[in-house]
## 1
Amino acid sequence: MAVVDRAWHGYKGELTPERWRFLVLPRFAWGDLFRSRILTAYYGLCCLVPLVFAVLIYLRYNLGALAFLGIQAENLERSLPIDGRFFALFLAVQTGMGFVFSAFIGPALVAPDLAHNALPLYFGRPFSRSEYVIGKFSSLAILLSAITWVPGLLLFGLQSFMAGAGWGIANLRFAGAMLAGGLLWVLVTSLLALAISAWIRWRPVATALLFGISAVGAGIGAAVWGIFRTSWGFLLSPGMLLRIVGADLFGVPLPERLPVWAAWMGLLGFATISLILLSRRVRATEVVR
Amino acid sequence: MNEALQPATASSAASGSLEPAIEVRGLEVRLGGRPVLRGIDAALTGRTIGLLGPNGAGKTTLLHTILGFHKPAAGTIRVLGHEVTAEPKEVRALIGYMPEGDSFIAGMSGVRFVRYMAELSGLPPEAALERAHEAMFYVGLGEARYRPIASYSLGMRQLVKLAQAIVHGPQLLLLDEPTNGLDPPARRRMIKLIRDIGRQGEVRIILSSHLLRDVEECCEDVMVLKEGRLALSCNLAEERRTNRRFLDLETSGENARFAEAAAKLGCETAVLGRRVKLVLPEGVEVRDLYKVAASAETEIRRLSYRRDTLEDIFLKAMEAPNGGS
């Protein structure tokens, strides 16, 4: 390395493909994120839950192991059948844990760049605003995917393998539900976290707000239900909307009477509003009117 | 001796053959409905170009428009032959930008920050890391490169901003107030670095500043903005050459009679004690002044051509009505 050479020279080497350059953002973000031992440990815990579910599937088909543990196969089948509810439960547990994770790392994604006026540094390069948003979105979405729908599909594959090919084909709906429900949750949660991060510069407040949107929305929904006997108030609760859509996808009983199409529209509304908020904030310069 | 440390030999004549770094035609930019740049036409061909103007003249807006941050309401900008609005990414790939004010990524060490910026410009990770180290050493932050940027002094932060602007080897460097807030030693260091980079010949530089001294020390060409209009665009050396008939004389004897006689030759004169300042008109040579001085029984003890300083050039541009030069 020519560290003693005081002359400065241009760069004439090869360049990385433009279309994948947004992945630089998650790579550096993860490097910073996993320096925190608490977050690393928590994420490790999130990764352990799929293993627990995998063990349950394995035990369901391993009578020797069940006998060794003193569990009767019929009891296990009765108390935890491997059907739509099993995969819906897995997704609910993982999205719950993932939400806590995103509430802590989401606010650290965009807010520091705004606080330290770093956006002109990004956009002064061959790097667009949409690539920036996609890069930041990927930083969170890839991590959340890795603990939700990706292990969910692996569990589906394991169950199909253990139960025989016929089960997998007969219950392909669960795989589709896992993929669609997981992706939808990752999309809405990541965009909400980014939008809040772009508008609230103080990290603890941003984290509280993300929790607050979930809690306050559900609270308003419950209040509207209590007063007017209508479920439309739950349109303000992204958590409830995701539950409704997830239940419909997995074919389990719906938690509320809000129409499924309305839940889809509500979630798309949350995603759209988040994108609009991001686009208004993620700019190289701010014009004072 | 290292090429970068050799004295400057770049001449304005050489820069005359360069393609324009920036070509602006009828540029108008409005921000929040308010016109900020109004009908600018210029072709900046120099190797190092100073962008001057009082606060609010539109310097930073012009740089931001070059970078594609603002869309022109009218007119076009071409950067090294590329149209900014049609090819924004191609243009920005050619540019290294050092913004005004504090600008960094929190929680990163200096070298990691510069490497990050290099990778965003398209350098592969290994090359980015190597050049990040080189850039940090080049700007004089080699020893501090593993320290968090948040712990850097203001001068060090300015230097790390310069490092991120040059790390990917741009062809055009846009420096917005690079000496802002620096103490004299840090300022000298920054100016020396800018001059060194300019001398390499690989990079064209546009230096925006309201500090005339910075521009005077670094730049061959200058563009002066006033209230969003182009007040002056010139080559500094040529501009000074056109003012070489401005003379400063030190005399002994009868100054008033000498000044009167010189005025009869058509000179503009001003007597300040033993000093006489005058502007020679066309056709009048210095030897004519000696003859007049002899007849007026005045002895010319010292005669010097007074070169216009950048301050003179700037003030003239500011005094011109409606900017235009």
Note: The two ends of chain B are 42 Å apart (CA to CA).
## 2
Amino acid sequence: MITTQGLTLQVAGRTLVRELDLTIAEGECWSIIGRNGAGKSTLLRTLAGLRGADQGAVRLEGKLLPDWPLEELARKRAYLAQSRTDAFAYSAIDTVLSARHPYHANRYWEDSDDHQAALHALAAMEVEHLARRDVRTLSGGERQRVAIAALLAQDTPLLLLDEPANALDLAHQVSVTGLLARLCRRERKTVVMIGHDLNLAHSISTHALLLRGDGGWLAGPVAQVMQPALLGDYLGHPIEMIEHGGRRIFIPFEEHHERHDA
Amino acid sequence: MIVGSLLLAATACLLFSGVTGSVSVGLAELPDAVAQVLHGRQDTLAASLLALRGGRALTAFVTGGALALAGVMMQALLRNPLADPYVLGISAGASVGALFALLMMAAAVVVDGAALAGAVAVSMLLYGLARRDIRGGVAAEGGTSTLLLTGVILMSACMALVTLMLSIAPEGSLRNMVFWMIGDLAGTPLRVLPWLVLAGGLVYALRSARAMNVLALHADSARTLGIEVGRLRKGLFFVSGVLTASAVTNAGSIGFVGLIVPHACRFAFGPDHRVLIPSAVLLGGSFLVLCDTLARTVIAPTQLPVGAITALIGAPVFLYQLHQLRK
């Protein structure tokens, strides 16, 4: 689906990712894991084509990213930004309908198909009752779900999400990430997302990419990459793992734990 | 629907403006007078009054329409509902040019030319300084703050020049200069060029209306929805700049229309640019026609500068709307 070759990313003279070779296949669900400022968002923006590569290349379906016409690219990949500012009083449904832009190139108004797709996406995110609300009056979590609904309405094979679980309550974190996992498994969509919750990432991802922030990276299937020792190394804090009912649970190691108990 | 009814309202405003004045034209005389004017004759007093006032009303309409459209575009470009066509200093540049010409006691044509030159100079300078910001460099995440700041600074510099010129101006030209600053439609001839500019701007805006929605909603991420963000920003900058320059050259820097009309339309019809653009043009035009009619009738035969009227009517209407929204 999307591949990188010798991809190097630099921000303000610092190399965040060095010579990344990544092959992400159809139906895979990737989590990008790393500390703050390790280059996760920069990498995701590069994969989305919002930012050029400092070195190396990104290919989507074998074609270099800058060679794609923007509208065609918009029917291939969707991107969820980490944060957004709403300057105008658009309604939630307007927001989602705008994601249909790449599908009605020369028409002035949207079609009933577009409305159908938008309502469907809002329903999938359990925010259809907010369709007519001014987006500026929504809570952070509601706004996030409307933004993800827009992503779904864009109906692309590749979804890039920068912290989709941001601002969501526990129940919606589980249901939204579960929906993403189902999209991969059943509809063969490809998901690349950033998240800080290791357990959530582990439960839905097929693959993971660890970034250390100094150029170092490690990519592979979840079972190989999400090991406590590796995670501890890349996140800069020791991680413990416990098995619970067949699930692996990651918890940060607490130094004063034992002394506190005693 | 909305656009149709606004079109009717605009026509009514133009006719109303034609019959109102120090000497009013009776309703009975109106059809005959309209027919005469349309046939290029002015046999009766009513007809010549109508032609005179109609010409002025049309100038007011094109100026108001251009300012409102430029306001909508500037607000979309800066993603800031508080922006207006003057926020980037283009009109301040025009003021410097026009006031300098007035100071030199130049002819009206020269004043207009100088205003245009000032507007163009400031736009070029602004584009040169904030080029990366306007293009929406792929690296820049947030935005347009460099553009906005550069514009505001350029405006302050221009306003300083304006103040300097006003303070050294002789008594004789001071009144003209102040009227120019506030914005005045008296003595502005009916020209074709502003209509062409408005028509061109409207066509561009309607064609970009959908993309403007996406830009207003998603900022730089609009690129992931297939929008050439850099090209759109550049287009909005230039088209709104030309519209502003045309309006200001025509009638001086009339305030408030470019800010309040887009707002009023947004409150009334929602933020969708596909409705907002045509309605703002029609409402902006009608609003300025009504204000100008008031300006020359309130204490007739003395004529007030229309810029003062727009602000006097605009401010309370704006505050009322804002208050209603808060409730």
Note: Chain A touches chain B through 32 residues (CB under 8 Å).
